[in-house]
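Q: Structure tokens for this one, please.
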Amino acid sequence: MKIGFVGLGQMGSAMARNLLTAGHELTVYNRTPGKADALAKDGARIASSPADAAKGVEAVLTMLADDPAVAEVTFGEHGIASGLPAGSAHLSLSTISVALARRLADEHRARRQNYLSTPVFGRPESAEARKLLVVAAGETAAVDRYHLIFEAIGRQTFVAGAEPWQANAVKLCGNFMIGSMMEAFGEAFATMRKAGIDRHLFLDVMNELFGSAVYRNYGGLIANEKFTPAGFRLRLGLKDVRLALEAAEELGSPMPFASVLRDHFISALANGQEQLDWSSVALVAARNAGLESSTKS
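A: Here is the predicted structure, written as tokens:
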């Protein structure tokens, strides 16, 4: 399959490489051109613009940080929408707002192009190992058409519905759940420390109780205060919580704990945690308990 890929950060580079490994013909674009060099050595063509990456392909994938970045490469001058052939699809892997997903769907539909929201769950190491969870939404025929792409980048695909924005709602609420778990660990670990109990013992108990890889992995990061290098920066976590609250407000569904998470992410940023992993939100609970951290932010 001829595929374009826009956005070669940690996640995007890993997914693009897996597409090459699966035998797809790949054209890549990144605002910082040097990030595409390694993929070019393995057979990818480097595009001169997002429109060039979309030229003549069956699908173009975007993996970018936020709404403004996705909007710029799609609607901007020399954007994806201007280069994508009619009948081909834009697959957005990014965590974006439900409002932007609707705008993307409308714009591509007007150009006789397809649009699918296909956000993923997983950190960079999961992307490298092809163990991401893909959540797809859009027209059934389009979802079915691109199953080989989903198989090349992830271990399982879930179809959220016929409206693309529904996949983004799943991703935002999923990230809310992960953020809530990290907040819970932060509060529990702070209490354990004040009780004189080893955080790692508590983590062992929780791992046996829940049997969850997410609990094990994030719990380990928080117990060890291993917040660098950041697999997912804290500011992006704040962005996702805000987007979840926006979606909930639109749908008339209160999410009071999401408001707590938002405020704790803001507190973390105010205390210099800009470059740390989003799991470092646990340091807010430690500070509130009067505990010092071994992490210097």
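A few notes: The chain has a mean pLDDT of 96. The first strand starts at residue 2 and ends at 6.
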